[in-house]
């Protein structure tokens, strides 16, 4: 059995487009992504507002699309892919995170899975594999459905390097969470690690090819995926092994993938990928792969909202409140999350962090995105001739 490969490169705005092209080929994506099948570019929107390291970056999306087109993949077989989240608007997020201009510039289809897309019962989709799922049959005793269009499609996940209050880190494996499960996916939070493993098993059954391209130009530490401290790290990663790329990203952040990330350990033990970084073949910039950022992680300084979520799913409030999240009362939690994150945390804490990040080269590239034209390598200048606002 061949070793799992993860490609990693250092990058900059001046070279990021060429770097993404090189990265994907170093990771062997053309051996995985069937050029005769439809390919979903699974965009990650963890917050509809722009927050560094939180969501797919526009240069990540641009770089991946350009690489695919340069290597002969048909534009007509590529599409952007979005899921609905009860606390985040994908329609607002694709605008504020500047994904939509990229999609429209390349003339790709832009598919929102919750709009006029049929969903299929899981047993019809994956057959007897349903009986081998670790937890989803218990979470959804009446069954659940997945998007029909995913059957036979390729999927390229576009996560970022960041921490998460439920899973320590989040990346390629968790990027499938929104796409495969509907708005009741919060029911799985008490067993989130096993859920991610179930979803990986499902992906391996339904997709022609599964690949991930992860952006670490900004990386997020702290109680993610939203309320993080963003850092400029200038790295990008790619792999056909969803477990391996998450493991390498976790190690970069300073975690032990097999000890600190239960979902990686379970997937590794089940043979769904390689979570042991000593056994992963690193290609590209090996010095970048050896970095250790010593992130404090999501649990040291949790926000009020994060502490309450932990108490509801695993602590003292579980008995009293968790049941309500599976009933018509559930919207109270959506409103509470929006009120805390969008109306309190962002204006009083997050905004200053965003402003600081916008002073970086990547921040200027984001702020001036619509007013800049790249060359084939990237953006030699991130400053337009006339000043602009985000």
Task: Walk me through the structure.
38% of the residues lie in helices and 17% in strands. By secondary structure, the protein is of the alpha/beta class. α1 crosses α2 (58-70), α7 (172-180) crosses α8 and α8 packs across α11 (262-269). The radius of gyration is 20 Å and the shape is globular. The model has no long low-confidence stretch (mean pLDDT 95).
Labels describing this entry:
single chain; globular; Rossmann fold; ten-stranded mixed beta sheet; 16 helices; alpha/beta; 390 residues
How do you describe this structure in short?
The chain is α/β, with parallel strands linked by helices. Helix content is about 40%, strand content about 15%.
Number of strands: 12
Please give the CATH class.
Alpha Beta
Query: Taking Cα atoms only, what radius of gyration do you get, to the nearest Å?
Result: 20 Å
Return the average pLDDT rounded to an integer.
Answer: 95
The coarse overall form would be globular
**Can you count the helices?**
16
Q: Structural class of the secondary structure composition? A: alpha/beta
CATH architecture group name: 3-Layer(aba) Sandwich
- N-C termini distance: 49 Å
Order of helices and strands: EHEHEHHEEHHEEEEHHEEHHHEHHHHH
Provide the helix percentage.
25-40%
Number of domains: 1
> What name is given to the CATH topology?
Rossmann fold
Largest beta sheet, briefly? 10 strands, mixed
């Amino acid at each position: 059995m061949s070793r799992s490969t993860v490609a990693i490169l250092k990058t900059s705005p001046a070279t990021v487009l060429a770097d993404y092209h090189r990265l994907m080929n170093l990771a062997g994506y053309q051996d995985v992504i069937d050029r005769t099948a439809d390919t979903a570019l699974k965009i990650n929107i963890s917050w509809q507002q722009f927050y560094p390291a939180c969501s797919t970056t526009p240069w990540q999306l641009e770089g991946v699309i350009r690489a695919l087109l340069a290597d002969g993949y048909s534009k007509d077989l590529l599409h952007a892919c979005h899921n609905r989240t009860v606390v985040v608007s994908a329609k607002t997020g694709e605008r504020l995170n500047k994904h939509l201009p990229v999609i429209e510039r390349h003339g790709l289809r832009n598919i929102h899975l919750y709009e006029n897309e049929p969903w299929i019962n899981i047993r019809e989709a994956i057959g007897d594999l349903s009986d081998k799922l670790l937890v989803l049959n218990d979470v959804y005793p009446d069954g659940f459905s997945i998007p029909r269009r995913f059957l036979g499609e390729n999927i390229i996940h576009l996560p970022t390097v960041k921490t998460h209050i439920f899973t320590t880190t989040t990346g390629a494996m968790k990027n499938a969470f929104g796409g495969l499960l509907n708005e009741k996916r919060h029911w799985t939070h008490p067993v989130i690690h096993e859920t991610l493993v179930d979803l990986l098993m499902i992906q391996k059954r339904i997709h022609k090819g599964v690949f991930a391209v992860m952006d670490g130009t900004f990386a997020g530490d702290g109680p993610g995926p939203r309320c993080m401290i963003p850092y400029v790290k200038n790295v990008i990663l790619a792999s056909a092994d969803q477990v391996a790329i998450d493991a390498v990203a976790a190690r970069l952040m300073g975690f032990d993938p097999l000890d600190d990330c239960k979902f990686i350990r379970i997937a590794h033990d089940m043979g769904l990928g390689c979570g042991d970084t000593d056994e992963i073949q690193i290609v590209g910039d090996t010095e970048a792969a050896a970095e250790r950022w010593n992130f404090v992680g999501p649990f040291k300084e949790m926000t009020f909202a994060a502490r309450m979520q932990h108490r509801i799913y695993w602590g003292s409030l579980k008995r009293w409140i968790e049941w309500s999240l599976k009933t018509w009362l559930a919207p109270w939690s959506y409103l509470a999350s929006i009120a805390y994150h969008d109306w309190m945390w962002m204006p009083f804490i997050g905004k200053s962090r965003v402003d600081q990040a916008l002073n970086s080269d990547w921040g200027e590239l984001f702020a001036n995105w619509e007013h800049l034209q790249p060359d084939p390598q990237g953006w030699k200048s991130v400053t337009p001739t006339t000043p602009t606002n985000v």
